[in-house]
Amino acid sequence: MGTPLLRFSARPVRRRLIGALGSGLLATALLVGGPAAGAAAAADGADATPTASAPSAQLPPDGDTVASPPGANDWSCRPTAAHPDPVVLVHGTFANRYENWLALSPLLKSQGYCVFALDYGMVPGITSSGSGLLLPIGGLGPIDESAAQLGRFVDLVRAATGAAKVDLVGHSQGGMLPNYYVKFLGGAAKVDKVIGLAPSNHGTTLDGIANLAPYFPRVAELIYTACKACRDQVVDSAFNRKMASVPDTVPGVRYTVISTVYDEVVTPYRSQFLSGPNVDNVVLQDRCPISLAEHVAIAFSPTALHLVGNALDPAHATPVFCG
């Protein structure tokens, strides 16, 4: 990381993203309760939705109309000798590429990386205005299908840039989803590094809330119908049993997990860690004891972003900024 760390205040964006998460949960219930209302909402917001920066022929097969975050999806970008692997950013549940990567994308671009970001797992009619724009939110579909979307996007990036491999950086579900792609969909031959910010690598108890689902089956079904990824990420789900049926990692891929002790979403936080000789499990507060970043804010934490940069380019790692 030769470029000084971008100073970025997480608090305003954190408030917007927390608002977006709440709006997403409410939208989930509305979608299940009234598909017509959801479709109408999507139609009303169509003119307000920024378009993607990539030509339509280069978009993933499912299409994408969400604005790219600053610095991402310049399809004319060519990797350099200093940064030969393009970086693909993978957002989390109830998120989109624009809001999730407002901090990291321009930082990596300023450091000379070719940066790309996709949206996946979209459910029509569910939108968020957390950033002040009416944007679809994703990370809701079945994770195996979302991983296939990621695979198609990786192929587009490799074709456009001429790169043999990419590095994958994800947040929450987006930090775990690349591991499914690497394990089961042939991604190991196309990926050099997987870096997860608060990834749901082994599922979550949601601080114990998920354990209450059997006692409120109708509520659980309401959520899981619109957000199949939510069901997949619960501890001991069929999806997580499949993930556990093979080792955490595959040879040839380097993994970094960056967790926070204040994570209230992927719990317990140490469940995010991976086992393997090619893994670096990092607790944010071990590097910066004063950091109060939790599950959302970790994607905007200067310390966490510095750790991402060091993981992408360990040969030029710099002392970690604490703030």
UniProtKB/TrEMBL annotation:
It comes from the Bacteria. Residues 1-42 form the signal peptide. Residues 46-78 are annotated as: Disordered. The keyword Transmembrane does not apply. Keywords: Signal. The keyword Signal applies. Residues 46-57 have a biased composition (Low complexity). InterPro entries: AB_hydrolase_fold, Lipase_EstA/Esterase_EstB, TAT_signal. Pfam families: Lipase_2. This is Esterase/lipase family protein. It comes from Kitasatospora aburaviensis.
